[in-house]
Amino acid sequence: MVQVVAKTGNEAMAEAMRQINPDVVAAYPITPATEIVMIFSQFVADGLVDTVYVPVESEHSAMSATIAASAAGARAMTGTSSQGLALMYEMLPIASALRLPIVMPEVNRALSGPINIHNDHSDTFAARDFGWIQIFSENSQEAYDNMLQAVKIAEHPKVKLPAMVTTDGFIISHCLEKIEILDDGTVKEYIGKFPAYTKLLDTSNPITLGALDLQNYYFEHKRQVAEAMKTSKDIILEIGKDFGKKFGREYGFFEKYKLDDAEMAIVCLGSFAGSAKAVIDEYREKGVKIGLLKIRVYRPFPDEEIAAALEHLKAVAVVEKCDGFAAKGGPLYDEIKSCLYDKKQRPLVIDYITGLGGREITHSQIIEIFDELKHTASSGKIKEAVQYKGVR
Amino acid sequence: MAQELGWKELPEGDALKAGTAADFHTGDWRSKRPIKDDKTCINCLFCYIYCPDSAVKVKDGKVIEIDYNYCKGCGICENVCPVKPVKAIKMVSER
Ligand code: SF4
Ligand code: SF4
After folding, report:
1. Mean per-residue pLDDT, A141-169
2. CATH code of the domain in which A301 resides
3. Exposed, middle or buried by CB within 10 Å (0-12, 13-18, 19+), for B31?
4. How many domains does chain A have?
5. Are A100 and A63 in a shared domain?
């Protein structure tokens, strides 16, 4: 039975965690993700879950304890944001190297410094190369749905990789929205029993985990992670489709909004897609053929699929909340341009770095972007390839 | 040593069956070696319990030898040896 409830992004993620009922959660609070583990710790205190809750003293320890629990054979989770994720960086590639299917909600927030608690994508983008699956959400409903699917994806025998599911700090994490929640029994049946591929505590089959892995084996282990990441693409699609069949909301690598017949498009991730769609509707009414591609799965990066969805366009605006400080545009711009490289016909691509530190992206800024896109499409010329939108 | 496996055959996740250190002589980079004095040793077996590499060999409740193939020269045995004023196990330079 489906229940319609009002939940913030954090509440939706905590609710998903309650229904997943992990064996171990080790966590340390950080704004704006604090509520997820705080609400969850209340579930533990109230006896609503069977979870062992480990209140650690830092995010480094949170990830370490989660890795240890997962390696011991438990379904283990944690949650974090920004500096917390950054403090986990040392441990993140260990989780993927050990092939531990940890699922972690991550609330996207600017990286310090200067210190800031609001949304951008610099924390999660910086963790893109650690062998973690990264799934972005536009709203609370997607956050909830993505959490459930992430468990299935991470724990799939052909994947066995950790996954983070992200929302945007405050914009999603603290905004109340109407969402559909499945009933506990349905979720329990959907996610199934934890497969426990690694069982460090199985004393009748003792193993050494994380042994020194030098020139003769490290490369092979990394090759396996690369392959699992590649294979996960099929599994992500399979699980997204199945989710649609079972619960009515289908998911893929990305969402196409009025894209197929479009001449221009915006490419973005997360909550900004909602604002962009509203402005797209206004332009569509005026007969302007503009669309949107909202990336849901950022790792693995669905490059061929994105290229196929964008190749027919005249101009594309990448709108991203991160500057990689590479002096050549942000990371998403890089990847969108690179995936289009092999296409005979390809759109002109402009990068708009925007929204850093939670800076609002206004309606009039979106209009400016669209108007420039129109001009670029008709003139066939890019005025300025990398731009900062909304900075004084 | 078994043949080195390719990525398709290698067990996933850097998980090995336990005890593989026995396949290698892990003590060959030792710079100091422990020397035991059989005359003062009281066979308390502290060194045996604390040795991180199971290099102290015991038989019938007595330390019989130190296996230098596995002793890495950490000096823990000397540190824990309770015999006074001169410890019954002493680290000496390999050269
Ligand atoms: S030096 Fe270290 S490794 Fe060698 S026997 Fe003593 S405790 Fe064991
Ligand atoms: S700790 Fe010292 S006294 Fe005890 S068994 Fe070892 S060498 Fe002998």
Report:
1. 98
2. 3.40.50.920
3. exposed
4. 2
5. yes
User: What pLDDT does A158 receive?
Assistant: 98
Shared-domain flag, residues A316 and A238 = no
Q: Which of A193, A213, A247 is the last residue of a domain?
A: A247
A225 and A98 together in one domain: yes
Q: What is the pLDDT of residue A110?
A: 98
Distance from A192 to chain B by nearest Cα, in Å?
22
Rounded to two decimals, the pTM is 0.92
Q: Does A97 touch chain B (CB under 8 A)?
A: yes
For chain A, give the percent of residues with pLDDT over 90: 99
- The answer to whether the CB atoms of A210 and B14 lie below 8 A apart is yes
- A10/A114 same-domain check: yes
B1 touches chain A (CB under 8 A): no
Of A201, A227, A247, the one marking the end of a domain is A247
The string of pLDDT tens digits covering residues A164-196 is: 999 999 999 999 999 999 999 999 999 999 999
Cβ neighbours around A344 below 10 Å, total = 5
The residue extents of the domains of chain B are: 38-95
Q: Which ligand approaches the C-alpha of residue B26 most closely?
A: 1
For residue range A67-122, what is the model confidence (pLDDT) as tens digits?
999 999 999 999 999 999 999 999 999 999 999 999 999 999 999 999 999 999 99
A364 touches B: beta carbon within 8 Å: no
For A158, the domain range is 3-247
Query: Does A373 lie in the same domain as A353?
Result: yes
A161, two tokens: 């990789």
Q: What is the DSSP letter of A359?
A: -
Q: Do B13 and A160 touch (CB under 8 A)?
A: yes
Domain B38-95's class?
Answer: alpha beta
Ligand 2 atom with the smallest distance to the CA of B87 is 2
Cα distances (angstroms) measured from residue A10 to each of A43, A173, A337 = 14, 5, 33
Give the CATH number for residue A58: 3.40.50.970
Q: Give 10-residue mean pLDDT values along chain B (95 residues).
A: 84 87 88 96 98 96 96 97 97 93
Min Cα distance B86 → chain A (Å) is 37
Contacts of residue A315, defined as CB under 8 A and 6 or more positions apart, other chains included, come to A263, A264, A265, A347, A348, A349, A350, A373, A374, A376, A377
Q: Are A228 and A264 members of one domain?
A: no
State the pLDDT at residue B19: 83
A286 and A152: one domain?
Answer: no
Name the pLDDT band for A364 (thresholds 50, 70, 90): very high
What confidence score (pLDDT) does residue B2 get? 60
For A205-238, give one letter per residue: b (16+ CB within 10 A) or e.
eebebeeeeeeebeebbbebbeebbebbbebbbe
Please check whether residues A263 and A188 belong to one and the same domain: no
What type of residue sits at position A183? D
